[in-house]
Design a protein that fits this description.
The chain is built from 3 helices and 3 strands. A 3-stranded parallel sheet has the order 1-2-3, with helices on both faces. It is 37% helix and 14% strand. By secondary structure, the protein is α/β, with parallel strands linked by helices. It has one domain. It has helices at 2-10, 22-28, 50-62; strands spanning 17-19, 32-35, 72-75.
Length: 78
Amino acid sequence: MGLIQSVIEKAGIPTVSVSVLREVTQKVKPPRVLFVDYPLGYPLGEPHNPELQKRIIRAALALLNRKVDEPLIVDFAG
């Protein structure tokens, strides 16, 4: 996803992703990433918790307002 994000950003369209694998994200260096400390396969947190899932989505979308000159990885505060 991060590689595709970079191409889309070069076209002038802001992007953001949610990651659960910090090490991979740091190597790929996508423009904007919200890192969530949840198991692989659970980028929006625990199942059946719509309030948490909404908070994660809102936090990720809020990153779209940030102009970046280098990769930005923000930790989800929970």
